[in-house]
Amino acid sequence: MPVESYPGNYPGTITSAPDVVRLAPASNLVCRARVKGIDADGDVVYTVRGQALTFHRKLASARVERTYSGTVEAGSPIRIEFLEPDVSAALTTLREGEDAVLFLIGSDDRYRLTDFGSSKIPLDDPAALASIRPVLTVAASSGDVLVQNVARAIATDLPPELGNGRRPAHG
After folding, report:
1. Taking Cα atoms as reference points, which of 76, 44, 77, 47 lies closest to residue 58?
2. Per-residue pLDDT for 168 more than 80?
3. Among 50, 141, 142, 144, which is least packed by CB within 10 angstroms?
4. Angle, in degrees to the nearest 10, between helices 126-140 and 145-157
């Protein structure tokens, strides 16, 4: 049986900030979610640059904290499929306890990352938050109203000391 080609563009090893202008309209759920647990969901083999590579399919259980785009209500449980390779790669992975903004495709309660390489804004990673701020600024001035609204809503959820460049007031 022939091995399928990797779905989408394989990201290599360089991590980039999510392209909100591209991801928001391509996703049917953009949300802030807290990962509750991770389960193995089998292995799959894809061809990447002519080589067969094994990926471990994982299934994260998460709770939606806030919905930026889509119809899933806050507090709803969802499951998110993602891949972990045996080799070093800049694939988006999730971890238990993580709080992140996610760009997802799916239905009911089962989703997958819209782009396996850049569909997450981890809200506990200062470097990732610093790199997403300019992306959100550009997206907020996009000609697409959906993109503008999603970018502005995400910016309001960034931690205060990173989201607006100011430290929180102490009083």
Report:
1. 44
2. no
3. 50
4. 150
The residue whose two tokens read 């959906």 is: 146
- Give me 150's structure tokens: 């999603």
For residues 103 and 15, which has the higher predicted lDDT (pLDDT)? Answer: 103
Query: Among 52, 129, 135, 120, which Cα is nearest to 80's?
Result: 120
DSSP-derived secondary structure for 70-107:
SSPPTT-EEEEEEEEESS--------TT-EEEEEEEEE
The model's pLDDT over 45-65, given as tens digits with 9 standing for 90+, comes to 988 888 888 889 999 999 999
For tokens 């931690």, the residue is 159
For the record, the structure tokens of 58 come out as 């994982």
Alpha-carbon span 115 to 20, nearest angstrom:
11
Distance CA 50, CA 46 (A): 10
Q: Report CA-CA distances (Å) from 102 to 5, 33, 43.
A: 25, 7, 23
User: Per-residue pLDDT tens for 72-100?
Assistant: 999 999 999 998 888 777 788 899 999 99
Residue 29, CA distances (Å) to 1, 13, 14, 72, 75 in order: 34, 26, 25, 7, 14
